[in-house]
Specification:
- By secondary structure, the protein is mainly beta.
- The protein folds into 2 domains: 3-7 and 106-190, no CATH class; 14-103, no CATH class.
- Helix content is 13%, strand content 35%.
- It has helices at residues 72-77, 79-83, 163-167, 170-177; strands at residues 3-10, 18-20, 46-49, 60-63, 67-71, 86-93, 96-103, 117-120, 125-129, 142-144, 154-158, 182-190.
- The strands form 3 sheets. Strands 2-3-6-7-5-4 form a 6-stranded mixed β-sheet. Strands 10-11-1-12 form a 4-stranded antiparallel β-sheet, covered by helices on one side.
- Strand 8 and strand 9 form a beta hairpin.
- The protein starts with a strand and ends with a strand.
- The model has no long low-confidence stretch (mean pLDDT 88).
């Protein structure tokens, strides 16, 4: 069975996005995806949907264009999967409950920086072509960030070796439940 690494992004072209009501929560440094906990700053806040009323609400969307927001029924259904790699921090939009998903799992040393290409090579920003070290792959399916790309991307390691891998596999879970709002871009495959 192949192992695959996907880069995931909220589908902001087809689904509405969310912004915090409090202007101070719009500061980009608060949302910096550095794998540290955000529990003390980004929890139980109010937010609003963007004004694009024709676009539907997805089960996943972008919050403040920097974070990943997950509808409450999805977070509840897949809590074990999400909590294995991060923290689910509740917030609300009117009467709708959502969770900001802060990925805290960091995988280091897996990306071959010398062989990979970036839009801004001197800063390792904008990963365009990823080359991974096979011996450094995670042991099971997970969601993660990488220091080598300045924590810019969010990645999913898709392994289906055993039942635990399948149960912690975001790609399989979203396809099985039909959840919407998240794009998967395959960036590496290992046979």
């Amino acid at each position: 069975m192949s192992k695959v690494i996907y880069k995931i992004t909220p589908d902001v072209n087809h689904y509405r996005v969310i912004f915090p009501d409090d202007e101070t929560l719009c500061e980009s440094k608060l949302w910096k995806p550095d794998t540290s906990t955000k529990e003390s700053t980004l929890i139980n806040f109010s937010a609003h949907y963007n004004n694009e009323k024709e676009a539907p609400l997805g089960d996943f969307t972008a919050i403040n264009l920097q974070g990943l927001a997950i509808r409450d029924h999805v977070a509840n259904e897949l809590a074990e999967l999400f909590e294995d790699s991060g923290e689910l921090l509740p917030f609300y939009v009117s009467n709708d409950n959502w969770y900001f998903y802060n990925i805290t799992r960091k995988v280091e040393g897996m990306l071959d920086v010398e062989m990979s290409t970036f839009m801004l090579p001197s800063l390792n920003i904008g990963l365009q072509k990823a080359v991974f070290k096979k011996e450094k792959l995670p042991k099971h399916s997970c969601i993660f960030k990488m220091a080598e790309d300045c924590f810019e991307g969010t990645y999913v390691f898709d392994s289906r070796i055993n039942d635990k891998d399948i149960s912690l596999n975001l790609f399989c879970a979203l396809r099985a439940h039909g959840f919407t709002g998240l794009n998967f871009e395959e960036i590496a495959r290992f046979d």
